[in-house]
Specification:
Blueprint lengths: L11 H12 L17 H4 L3 H9 L25 H12 L25 E4 L12 E8 L7 E9 L6 E8 L3 H12 L6 E2 L9 E6 L5 E3 L4 E5 L5 E8 L10 E7 L4 E2 L1 E6 L4 E2 L6 E8 L4 E9 L4 E10 L2 E8 L10 E9 L4 E8 L8 E2 L10 E8 L2
Helix pairs in contact: 1-4, 3-4
The chain binds heme C.
Amino acid sequence: MPSDAPPGGPTYHQDIAPLLARSCTTCHRSGGIAPLSLTTYEEVAPFAGLIATSVAERTMPPYNLDNSGTCNTYVDALWLAERDIATIDAWAEAGAPAGEPTDEPQDGPPGWEPERVDLTLEMPTAYSPSEPIVDDYRCFILDPGLTEDAFVTAFEVRLGRPDVVHHLTLFALDTAEDEQGAEALDAAEDGPGYTCFGDTVVPSRWLVGTGPSDKGGRLPAGTGLRIGAGRKTVLQMHYNWQNGTAPDQTAVDLTLEPSVPKEAFVARVADLTLELPPGQPAVVESEVMPLEGDFTLWGVWPHMHNLGKELRVTANHPGSEVCLAQVNRYNFHWQRFAFYEEPVQVRAGDVLQITCTYDTTGRDTPTTWGFGTDDEMCIGFFYITPTG
Ligand code: HEC
């Protein structure tokens, strides 16, 4: 690689390595979930052009929500500043100069550990992702064995095989009927757990989840999500076996409190009446929902399936609009809850509006709402607490 770039321009050792360590190498290292390791000059330089393109198009780092501030901003967003994108571009344009090595340690984002582990929910046996399916979604019913209600306030995930687990979500089952539904699905399939694309198939409530490469965290201070006494949970694992089908046995450590100042709920605004005609690059669906109470919105999780391209949620009251979520390039694989840097207050009478855009050019029959891989959804999940 040429190192005769004009003096003063960005170099790998001075500028690029620290940036990649901050935003990329948690996934892009040997044993990480991404296909290429980006931890040395020799690894990075041949891909300079591809790296510059992927960050300019914002396909990397992978993050569904627009964090630029034109809509909103989120805690710990995987999002590069415009200035960093320009630095990478200038470096690639200059022929990817190495520069002088420094002694500076290249630190990644700080790790996180819960202060206290009160309950561990672990898959009862190891599970090997199924061979014929590239993306295997598997649900495991786990019994917390609680004798009193408790509130989840923080969590840490311990992945059995970080290279085969894509992401996971833990859900609460709130009724005996929902538990029986899940148990029937489990009993109807061979091996541990049952197949569950996108969701738990039976009614359930989100508790905690991690996207690829993140390990957990704290729920917003003063809030927590209830697990009912005697109730069960479902751990939904998404395995992507581009790295193989090694058996995985994952555990989730939870910090619990007997009570919290504000019990949080996961509510949703959704368009349930999807009727997407085939063969169109941009089919737009929209729904409104008037609010019946006052709430604090702490976080959002945009959800569509594989045809989803764009999604926007706003809260409207006469004369003003607050943008809650803007997704410009939806990717089913990069879903997660994102908490607002500034929680949003909404009031009774405000109207939530959700708009989803789909690309149906690959379909020759209409697509409707449903739980299957080939069905679609249009949902904004919100982490909320009632106010006032
Ligand atoms: C959360 C994990 C994660 C992070 C963080 C991440 N990547 Fe990736 N990256 C992936 C995965 C997984 C792939 C494989 C393709 C896919 O699944 O989309 C990938 C693919 C790529 C590719 C291959 C080109 C392509 O489009 O397929 C490039 C280049 C890349 N990433 C660059 C970066 C850079 C530069 C950063 C940091 C600014 C970064 N990535 C941050 C997970 C990540």
